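Pasting two entries for a bug report.
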Amino acid sequence: MKKVILILFVIMSCVLPAFAVDSKPQALTRGEVVKYLSTSDMVKKKIGELVSWTVGYDVSKVNRAKLTPIISFVKIVPGRVSPDGRTIVEITAAVDDPGGLENIAGVRADLSSIGRLPNTILVDSGMFGDKKAGDGLFTLQTTIPTDVSFGLKELPVAAANKKGWLALSKTTLDVENPTGR
């Protein structure tokens, strides 16, 4: 941005004296200056070097590492459980953001594969199974209903920041038959 302002300043200092017919310079309207500058080949070339008008906003040029939240790991304890409706399963996600933890808008898990809500909130408040508030470890506790089928269940986790960027991860829970059959 500073380069553009500097270029415009240099151009204006060269262009405006050309409008002076007598010893005292004439005042130009903003529209006249823009019209004159936009027709100058030198300005077109400089602007073309700074901005690509054909591509426009190119997301691939954005450094996403500085924008998106980071999910370091997602773990589930215990990793193998029977669907008894009583055993507490704890899901923990380690989340961080380049803008700091205060930039995290929310962390959610899709528990629909185990018969729970598809948009369940994980907390970092020191309550509801979370051990320490504000440490970046978001936690959720649940049980497995008795009507859930046996087998591996995938549990996706998503973390969003206040800028709207999203990070995705997942963990797997093994719902086992308690009788071993």
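Entry 2 (this is the one that rendered wrong in the viewer):
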Amino acid sequence: MIDEQLEEMLLERLKEGLDNLNNLKPEEKAKVIRDLAVIHGLRVEELKTRWDYELKYENMEREFEVKYENMKREDEHKKREEELKKEQSRWDKINQYITHGIATAGIVFPLIFYGIWMKKGLKFEETGTYTSGTFRNLINRFRLTKH
């Protein structure tokens, strides 16, 4: 608003000076021309200032928009990373359960197998009338852990 008033005043002063220029004496013309040159210089400076301000304002708006878009992208990226971490954590748990299950099966199945053979062997030798060398040596060969 102040800029518009200032510009209007400068333009009005320039017009008045140019209109009155023909009616003046030569020595007054020189003074009026110098005054008009100063006024015109002020108007040019005021326009430059306004244009610089508008340019800076537009640049600030663009920078803000770019920063805002970057922030949105970063937020989306963080959300995706969190989702991926959750998914990875889920798969890590599944992998851990499978690994523990296989390790447990590696211990439990040989124990079940040895238990069944021991039961059948003891059943066979229950009467004591006939003992097998296989069953006698089998007990020594059972390994509950890996060597």
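Dev reply: Rendering is fixed now. As a check, the viewer should reflect this: Residues 2-104 form one domain.
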